[in-house]
Amino acid sequence: MPAYAVIGGQWGDEGKGKVIDYLCENVTMVARYSGGNNAGHTVLNASGEFKFHLMPSGVIWPQVTPVIGNGVVVDPDVLIQEINDLRARGIDVSKLQVSDRAHVIMPYHVRMDQLEEIGRGQDALGTTGRGVGPAYVDRVARSGIRFGDMLDAEGLRDRLALAASRANNTITKVHEAEPFSIDELFEQCLRWRDELLPFIAPVEERVREALSRGENVLLEGAQGTLLDLDHGTYPYVTSSHSSVGGACAGLGIGPRSVAGVFGVFKAYTSRVGAGPMPTELNDDMGELIRERGGEYGTTTGRPRRCGWFDGVASRYGVIVNDLTAGILTRLDVLDGFDPVRVCVGYELDGKPLEGFPAQTRALEQCKPVYRNFAGWHKPTAGLTNWDDLPAEAQTYVRGIEEIIGCSIDLVSTGPHRHETICRKPLIP
Ligand code: GDP
């Protein structure tokens, strides 16, 4: 059963959008399984540059059916905007399907996200304030509104009365802010339903059908493994399972359907928002990586924290996802750096740490142990053949393979689809 998952191996922004767009040639479906419009995937190809927040990255390919699975929380306004923007650029979005089991981000979720983040003060998590976390909280509390609910107006009114009263209670009593009008929310839902009706579908069945026909389906990860709700650097994580386990639960497929799990890693490390990042460089070198890499968030424009490649965190990403292949992106950003450093271990209180610790404080206080690699002085930007890479760049890639314990089958040397070195085809 040919499903292939594309997972962020670090803290997100690894270049999954580019990789998915590159891999789509022999694929008929691309399925998002987690997160919401807190994701931002950039795709650059002959049709232009696209920044997707909810739309699966394969939408540009005419043979691809883009689907949004039950594991995703969807702000209908953002989705409608993306659909309209793509239509205006001549992209056919008629095949898009949104799961009737996917949860709706309601306006009160956005408000609660912002109020909660303000309430955390100094301890703010650095959420994107798009309502993603509160929508997942309501899902778990069984007070969520799902897209399927919008198909039954009477039932929707009842569910909304319960769900919105609960949200209003928190908004007025905890945050002392203005409540939402349930009637207005209901009217809003009906407007969304009218616009999105052609797209709402039993997506999980469609994914299973495509798999049983033997078609290649890409499972599109959002964020990265180190932001996974359980396996990431809790509590500085996202509210869903960005690692491979989330792909099955978020699309209603079994693990035996997954033939390959590809982890995407940047050739260095970046992180947005708060939380531990052992290899962060708060110096000129960090600034240089940020400037050279243009490391500013796709969704928020926030400057990303930058540092050397963290081999310990990335090896953990390999293990958690049981990766079958690694993909290294943005090698070109390191052109001209000498030496290039990779963290190969952590030390706490002068003693080596075993593996990747669960405790935030250990990660905050540990010191990275680095291995230096010789830099390369000829550019790698845009190269498409392994043999053309400078010997030092080849050694760097091989060193990363050894440190993380996973082969790097694809190396990305630029943002364009074609700026890619394929060492081994990932999808037969
Ligand atoms: P995603 O969320 O994992 O899809 O990553 P983002 O879209 O946030 O960030 C990746 C950025 O890097 C985008 O602007 C891509 O166009 C760009 N990108 C992807 N691969 C490469 C690469 O190999 N080299 C360079 N220079 N840019 C890349």
Percentage of residues in DSSP E strands: 15-25%
Q: How would you describe the shape?
A: globular
Mean model confidence by pLDDT: 94
Q: Rg to the nearest angstrom?
A: 22 Å
Number of strands: 20
Main sheet: which strands, in order across? 9-7-5-2-10-1-11-15-19-20
Helix content: 25-40%
Distance between the termini: 12 Å
Unreliable segments of 5+ consecutive residues: none
Helix/strand/pairing class, anyone?
alpha/beta
Query: Sheet with the most strands?
Result: 10 strands, mixed
Output the number of helix runs: 12
- Bound ligands: guanosine-5'-diphosphate
Write the layout of secondary structure elements.
Elements: E1 3-8, H1 16-23, E2 29-32, E3 41-45, E4 48-52, E5 65-68, E6 73-74, H2 76-88, E7 97-99, E8 103-104, H3 107-120, H4 132-140, H5 153-174, H6 182-196, E9 200-201, H7 203-212, E10 217-220, H8 244-249, E11 258-266, E12 269-271, H9 284-293, E13 305-307, E14 309-310, H10 311-321, E15 325-329, E16 340-348, E17 351-352, H11 360-365, E18 367-373, H12 391-404, E19 408-412, E20 420-422
Parallel strand pairs: 1-10, 1-11, 2-5, 2-10, 5-7, 6-8, 7-9, 11-15, 14-16, 15-19
Antiparallel strand pairs: 3-4, 12-13, 16-17, 16-18, 19-20
Helix pairs in contact: 3-4, 3-5, 5-6
Bound molecules: guanosine-5'-diphosphate.
Would you kindly provide a written description of the structure presented here, covering whatever features stand out?
By secondary structure, this protein is of the alpha/beta class. It is built from twelve helices and 20 strands. The strands form five sheets. The chain has a ten-stranded mixed β-sheet with strand order 9-7-5-2-10-1-11-15-19-20, sandwiched between helices. Strands 14, 16, 17 and 18 form a four-stranded mixed β-sheet that branches. Helix 3 runs parallel beside helix 5 and helix 5 crosses helix 6. The longest helix has 22 residues, at 153-174. 50% of the residues are buried. The model has no long low-confidence stretch (mean pLDDT 94). Guanosine-5'-diphosphate (GDP) binds next to helix 1 and strand 3.
